[in-house]
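Subject: Sanity check before I submit

Could someone independently write out the structure tokens for this chain? I want to compare against mine line by line before I put it in a report. The sequence has 396 residues.
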Amino acid sequence: MSEPVTDSCEADGLQSADDRAGLSVGRKAFFAFVLLGLILVSVEVAGRVYYASRTDGDRYLRQAYYQDRDWSESYWQVHERLRMRYEPYLGWRRMDVSSENINILNGVRRSVGAATSSDDALRVWCFGGSAMWGTGVRDGWTIASQLAKLAGEAGYDVAVRNFGESGWVSTQEVILLDRMLRRGEVPDVVVFYDGVNDTFSAFQSGVADGSHQNLGMFENYFELGYDPRRSIVSRLAIVRGMGSIGRRLGIDRRPPTEDESSREALADGVAEVYGANVRWVRNRAAEYGFSCLFAWQPVVSWQKDYVETESDGYGHMSGMQMDAMLSFYDKTTAKVAGEDIVLMRGCLGDSPEDGYFIDHNHVGEEANALLAACLFEHLERMLRERSARDEGMGGV
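---
Independent answer below. Compare away.
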């Protein structure tokens, strides 16, 4: 009778130990899962705090160029708050803003020294991307404002309008010009200041058909529709951080033009589209009676001995990608040189200690003055011809 009892007790003891062992494994898995969740949440919160406190302005403010300029911090604070609005056919334009250093009205940034009440003032329209718009400089130091200043000093009565917009390619600028001509607004001279955006747009998407930048983002919106889950995931700090690490390591899905032949073909495409835009403007100039000036903007690699801070602002691309982009820019530049445009190479001379470039293609105020001076050598001839024509017509 005792043996069955003993066996039963031993069996119960063994079962209890097994149960405790199984429960322990479950608890370990549960606590490991909770700990992993807490770590991910902590990393996400820390990342959100980091990204909330980190702006493009902070990156620029760390550069030597902005260290001793008392307007720098207030400028970049306003710049970070600028917002875009949808514009039919053009994609986007900045919303209006009024501040000490940046003023925009009806999508047009203020050009200092360009205001005139004279009906006889020569109308000079400036088109381009962010370099023409004036990223990193105050209203009075954009290329458009500097052209107005030089024209005034030379005795010309001009009304300069700055139609530059960040990210725009020349095709968007041509569309805007066409829309204004259709409304009956006709300039005396148009200045197109392009190059980087046309080239980067093609480099980014692998398509050289005049498409605007961030083509993939627009395609996804229309083809995939808006998915809040995808939007939420893309905004996660962890996802953004992984993307940033990948870019720093040179891992990026954007440039699809790895081999030399494909980049050669892509550069041909950029030059072909840009050349077609140049010819279209010249045809409209002949039809409507205005003059046109085309300039191909400089990049930091064109500087013979650029200082270290000038190569720090690669922004959303790794150094490896930027080197590839600048090489592609040189390749494209060689192909557009036959379009009778002004190549802005050599306009700046040697860089000062704190540099001219605040990133790969934007420059500071003093450099904008030098670039405007180079442009004005060509613009003045057009202003002189227009003034002489108007005086002759007045005499008749």
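---
OP: Matches mine. For the report I'm noting this point. The CA atoms of residues 31 and 344 lie 63 Å apart.
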